[in-house]
Amino acid sequence: MDAREMALHRAYEHAVRWLAGLSDRPVPARAPAEEIVRALGPGLPDGPTSPADVVDLLATACEPGLTAFPGGRFYGFVVGGSLPAALAADWLVSAWDQNCVMRAVSPACAAAEDIAGAWLLDLLDLPPASGVGFTTGATMANFACLAAARDAVLGNVGWNVARDGLTGAPAVRVIAGAERHIAIDLALSQLGLGEPELVATDDQGRIRADDLRHTLTTEAPAPTIVVLQAGNLHSGGFDPFPQAVGAAREASAWVHVDGAFGLWAAASPRLAHWTTGCPDADSWATDAHKTLNVPYDCGLAVVRDAGALRAAMSRKGAYLIHDERGDPADTVPELSRRGRAFPVWAALRSLGRDGVADLVDGLCRHAGEFAAGIAAIEGASVLNDVVFTQVCATFGDDARTDRVMSRLLEEGTAWISGSTWQGRRVMRISVSNWSTTDDDVARTLTAIRRAAAAV
Ligand SMILES: *Cc1c(COP(=O)(O)O)cnc(C)c1O
Fold first, then answer.
1. How far apart are the C-alpha atoms of 271 and 341, rounded to whole Å?
2. Does domain 98-347 have CATH number 3.40.640.10?
3. How confident is the model at residue 99 (pLDDT cuts 50, 70, 90)?
């Protein structure tokens, strides 16, 4: 065995041990970054170390600083795990080390993007001729879609952003719900569009379509982008797409949907009614590394007018080999990148259409079990309608909710984030991992009951 094979074998052994230990280890990391720095050794050595020894040191020193994100009892933020086929495919992506820039030089990447992209459009009920970009995550997917939106709405009034930039351009109105994700603000600021105008949301965080209509009609027509949401971070709620898209259409606005995790409702026949009207938008951002459970990092930018996405994202370089069918680099902000479509293809190929629906349904079923279990705890209440994967609960006043949260995290059975929603401190559960079992939910509910009884 040569040094490379030895290093790969060690990595395989460490990976398998890590994954096998997930169901029994405490979910939170046990050591802070400073301790991991000491264990890794902060000094740069003068000479070489064998690759296998480097892998051993890395795995051993980092282990206490790892959180069990891929395990069945991590419910913080919105974080998926890794389906076995997607994880294994991701290892191949590293070994293959393809640069997914050009169709002519990376034909396998282009093929995987073509197939996985078409499957995604089909599963998510989006227009089949849309452009699809495989980004690092939903933040950059929102960025790519909103770049296409900005350039298109300014193009409609005769302004060429690609050539003339934004200095001196007509003002662009960007309108979003008050409970949009912070990623929207990030993307807008990077695009030179400033902060969005906010429209009121209801008790589930959904945009109020009548307020949106009012906001759109109180000012003179201008290039306008309306940002809607499929899947509110706290409630899991979906904007009322038929009414909101209708209002935006009347104002000739570009409609963008941030559906980082919620867009996947469309893949489940039981849940697809939540995304009714959503396919009538112009662009959609979602993640593959959340609900679809591929390893980090992978988001998806989808734009109905494939040419608009390409116009915003691609430039011709004299040294590149351009393909008239379009190159993988034409749909994302960067040039060089890894083959993100391979794990997506593997996830979809291993699940099949029914498997994707079962995955999404299973996450929602577990969220419902959490809601029922928590509602039965004395002093606790669930604040949201549990329509998807998210549950927000309180345990009395803010101080007590925070104490229950701290107690739960100290105990380590599960990881759940605290948050503030509609003025109250909440325990916010997101069920996003394919590997969560009924037993994980039962163990977590027992831990929540213990924490609530103790404070
Ligand atoms: C997670 C999330 C984002 C940001 O996605 P990243 O993959 O972290 O870049 C945007 N919008 C919503 C609704 C999200 O849940």
1. 26
2. yes
3. very high
Rg (CA), the chain: 23
- As given in the structure block, the two tokens for residue 214 are 């009012």
Q: Check if 70 has its Cβ closer than 6 Å to any atom of ligand 1.
A: no
Query: 245-266, pLDDT tens digit by residue?
Result: 999 999 999 999 999 999 999 9
Interval 115-149: pLDDT, tens: 999 999 999 999 999 999 999 999 999 999 999 99
Q: How do the domains of the chain map onto residue ranges?
A: 3-66, 98-347, 352-454
Ligand 1 probe mutation, 77, 139, 429, most atoms within 8 A of CB: 139
* C-beta of residue 126 within 8 angstroms of C-beta of residue 227: no
Cα–Cα distance measured from residue 264 to residue 359, given in angstroms and rounded to the nearest whole number = 10
pLDDT for res 310: 95
Query: Which residue out of 233, 235, 275, 283 has the highest number of ligand 1 atoms within 8 Å of its CB and is therefore the one to mutate?
Result: 233
Q: Whose CA is nearest to atom 5 of ligand 1?
A: 138
Return the residue whose CA atom lies nearest to atom 2 of ligand 1: 260
User: Which CATH homologous superfamily contains domain 352-454?
Assistant: Aspartate Aminotransferase, domain 1 (3.90.1150.10)
